[in-house]
Amino acid sequence: MFDLSLLDICLLLLCALMAGLIDSIMGGGGMIQVPALFSFLPGYPPATLMSVNKIASLVGTSGSAFQYAKANKTPWKLVLISCSAAFLASVGGAYLLTQVPNQWLRGALPFFLLALLIFNIRSTAGLVHAPRHQHHKQTGLASLGGALIGFYDGFLGPGAGAFYKLWYARVLGFDFLRSAAPSKFLNVASNLGALCVFLSLGYMNLKLAFLMAIANLIGGQIGSKMAIKHGNVFIRKAFFITVSALILKTFYDAYIH
Asked: What is the first-listed, main subcellular location in coarse terms (predicted)?
């Protein structure tokens, strides 16, 4: 399995567990899992490591999504339509990733995240459930967000889960708990879309992906139960911590590393 030592495998699994926990609360678990894979396996094709990350995240996020769906009523029609948009857009983004460099987006991402943090720091979005749109307009906006963020998830990916949740909070007026299940299912859809592209090109290590998926699933179950128990204020704090960490990580990756 990539000639890893037992210690290396254990450390990777610990990173996957922590990624699942963080991702289940607000999103952004990839900022732990992806660097860990690239650090422990520097000589392997990036697409192979990304496919391992996607399948582990897919399993962990699916588990979290169903936890949230059981805890709160989920608008399934809205979710299914917007997930279709996220899946198709992610396929396009992942394919584009195999054709063109994404350094320009890496360079812009930390500044976009900083603007996002400043824009939301004084907002109460996500604390109160007050949907702003109904029926076709709500479905259209949810699908637009699914497509935009899904494309980004396939092309680059860090923080996609947080972006989905923020779209539901800022644009659609959902609170964080009621946006949790839809945003997780959207993340599952875009992970699956990108994964289909990577698998079709032969990039995969199933043994490592299986082990990391189990660890990610365990972390996701722990995190989602914490979020359901402690509510919107807890998730809002997790959002600001996650985005702040993403700003530092993406800036380091783009300009220092």
From this structure: membrane
